[in-house]
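I'm stuck. Protein, please.
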Amino acid sequence: MGNQRPPDVRSFSFIDLPDVSTLTRKETHHEPNNRKAEKADA
């Protein structure tokens, strides 16, 4: 049982890592886009 706990936590971290990376990447791409649109609107 003690040996099964480490792999379980690692699997969770792996799934959370890609999810957060994709979200951060999308947000970063949206920020510059929104700023450009605001400048063009002004």
Notes: The chain is about 90% helix and 0% strand. The mean pLDDT is 60. The longest helix spans residues 5-41.
